[in-house]
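Subject — a protein and its fold
Fields — amino acid sequence, structure tokens
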Amino acid sequence: MMEQWGLQLLNGIGRMFLNPLLYWIILLLIISGTKRIYKERTNFGVKIFDYFNETKQTFLFALVAGVMISIAALLFGFVFTSEMLIVIAIVTILLSITGSFHLLSPAYTLGITFIIFMLLPLFPIESLPVVQSVGELANIQFVTLAVLIGVLLFVETLLIYRAKENHIYPSLTLSDRGVWLGKQQLKRMSVIPFFLFIPAGEVTNIGPILPYFQIGDVSYFITLIPLIIGTQITGRSEQMMSRKNGIAKEKLVLSIVVLLIAIASYFYFMLSFIAIVVAIVGTEWITYRNRTYNRYAAPLFAPLNDGIKVLARLPGSRAEDLGILPGEIISKVNGMNVTNSEQFYKALQHSGAFFKLDVLDSNGEVRFIQSAFYATDHHNLGLIFPEAPYDERHLERLEQLN
């Protein structure tokens, strides 16, 4: 028995390489990293984070989550037809083409898949295998999808909550008044691999070759699914490290409600549809509240008449070593008042071997930082400020020189 399960798990891992999502994940990360780095160079004149930073420090997290979901899936008999897996892959790819990780929430990827399969029987295409599979395993698949959405929304909550400062990306936006403002964006993605069952009849062409086993009167294969989970939160009116915790709490409540309704759908099938609606509407509501808050609250990263606000800092830079935090204000450099990066840079040039900064923290208290200035240090100590894009400022300087 153990040998049969072992062979099934190994073959399930092998079947994962037939899933187009596996290869799309790699392409998506390359495209996302390229676009982000291009925007960083355009806005700030420097690459801030490396490629694949969106998935860094998620491997162990994804592995643990995948093992837990796999145990539940194999114990409670989570079943998807091969057509269901294909639709999930197509929906995920189409949603991620936009470049927004927000649409990679399981509420959208699995929720839209659920709706597609619910609507398919209404169309006159009964001869298609995907429609036939809906009729054969409809209740099982729909309940499984609803439960998975509840569980994966909880995983998404943990993904948000566990995010660190180096997972938050600075960016710029132009206000209605034509002023450049800074904003922060939490953008994370993880690939959760987990096992579940596929009816052996769905792959009859290779059935005699691959091992399978019986559960009741039906034969099943085991397959490993690489499911993408993404999250994207934008903020310009509050520190993202604080904002994300509030959103994570809202997501946690939503995941619990969806999971409870989904579990109840085992006894009353139509509750699975209610669970999907709650997941999608709840996710949209959380997004809408955050968007509204950013629109009407005072911007945190705006130009100042006295001092210059820190939007971000380069990983491993002197600014990080000195403990200068995003949201803090640098009012003076070596006793000279500064209000933009050019003044900040010129003041540092007069530092000699040492420099002194007057820093106003989030509590309104001033602290003084004095340190040596090394030749290897970034010219701005690795600090990123909210002002006009670097390319625009560089072009203006060239025009002034000419």
Notes: Residues 310 and 326 are 5 Å apart (CA to CA).
